[in-house]
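Supplementary Text 2. Reproducibility record for the structural model of the 139-residue chain.

All settings were left at their defaults, and a single model was retained for analysis rather than an ensemble. We include the record here because the model underlies the residue-level annotations in Supplementary Table 4.
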Amino acid sequence: MSTDTPYISITFRSDLALLIVRWLREVSQTELQQGYLEACQVAADHQAGRWLVDSRRRAEPDAQMVDWLAQEYLPALKPAIHNLPIHLACLVATTWRPSTSPATPLAALAQTVSDIEQDYQISLFGDEGAAMAWLQEQP
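Retained model, structure tokens:
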């Protein structure tokens, strides 16, 4: 199953039980929310708790987007997928450096959130193979 718009591609890989979300360009707050809501629906349809989120084509940070993800979206995601563990592998550009470059909202959130305190785990990767390997290790 695949959902595509001009700014996001969402694919569920049944062979890997994995949701793949690829941001195709910079997005507005409205597009970010709509894209993630569409991803949530696909995840709910397939009970997918493991996601590969490709943010390599995005680099603009936005505090409102980070807040929305942390305060509204991620807390609502777990019940939508029947309380399965949530593991998000966020792909960032290999040239991205946390201390010198802007971060996408999910990457910014990954740097500020303690996984122990939350119902989800976010890890950052510059290599898609490493991200896929990490996701395959998760329950």
